[in-house]
Amino acid sequence: MEYQGKNAFITGAASGIGFAIAEAFANRGTNILLADIDAEALEAAKKALSPHGVHLDTYECDVAKPENLQKAADYMTDTFGHIHFLVNNAGVGLSGAVGTIDTEDWRWIVDINLLAVTLGCEIFLPRMQAHGESGYIINTASMAGHLGAPEMPPYVATKFAVVGYSESLRGQLLDSTIGVSVLCPGWVNTNIHTTQAGSPSRNRAGAPPAAPSPDDIARFKEMEAVIRSGLAPEKLARWVLECIDQNRFYIFSAPEMRGFLQERAQQIDEDYAACDTWFANSSSDTP
Q1: pTM > 0.90: yes or no
Q2: Which residue is catalytic, options 155, 165, 250, 272?
Q3: φ and ψ at residue 230, rounded to 5 degrees
């Protein structure tokens, strides 16, 4: 894949995985439009990347709003020209027990983690196809897109959906010049655990935020410790570009979690075997 002089659009680019991927692209000479909802952090990211000598610009963008993504695409086309790389990376976390999760919080995480990915592709892909040059799409999911972690049903649901959507998208683009990968990292040292503070239920006008319970505080500290011990985003980003070069679809980053995927595959195999047996034995039954 060619990087030098190509143009990339990255959401959630002001920090964490998005910023690290932007830096990896800049190291290879790619021009970048950095998109994020945090304008101040965007400017800091641009300043940090400026020594690479590539064309950098920023776009304050709430990916939950389709009109923001449309305007960002228009701006990039006008400012950069052709779009070669699309990285749908912006995301938030949300945990909670089923039966206690606010409906507006569900809509919030679905809008950001799932619909922003699909809308990014709907809006940017036709522009990438129009110029006829090679391109690549990265959709950020998670290992939670393969494993149903019980602590965070909304997050798991959105990430499973991103994996499935990306599989479908890849199938549509197999015979094209545009590649697709779905990024499924394990624990990465980012601030994803703090994003739940932005959920609607925590920010309702006129409603003072509920004080966290001792259990909430303990869970947060436990989660923070695990995340802080996670993979450095910079190392993950280098691996992402290696996978682009290899046209690798699933981008995993946690060798220690492979066993969980194997257990899931074994469970599926066992349950399918039960299905095979039941239907074989009932083949002569009356429908």
Answers
A1: yes
A2: 155
A3: -80, 180
Backbone angles phi, psi at 96, to 5 degrees: 150, 160
Point out the least confidently predicted range of 55-59, 213-217, 254-258.
213-217
Q: Which CATH architecture has domain 7-253?
A: 3-Layer(aba) Sandwich (3.40)
Q: What is the rounded distance in angstroms from the CA atom of residue 233 to the CA atom of residue 17? A: 5
**Token pair for 48:** 């940090």
Strand (E) or helix (H) holding 245: helix 233-245
Q: Any idea where the domains of the chain sit in the sequence? A: 7-253, 258-287
Residue 124 contacts by C-beta under 8 Å, 6 or more apart in sequence?
A: 9, 69, 73, 83, 86
Sign of CA dihedral 216, 117, 64, 56: positive
Is residue 75 annotated as part of the catalytic site, yes or no? no
Over residues 25-29, mean pLDDT: 99
274 Cβ neighbours under 8 A, 6+ residues apart: none
Contact yes or no for 155/142 (Cβ under 8 A) = yes
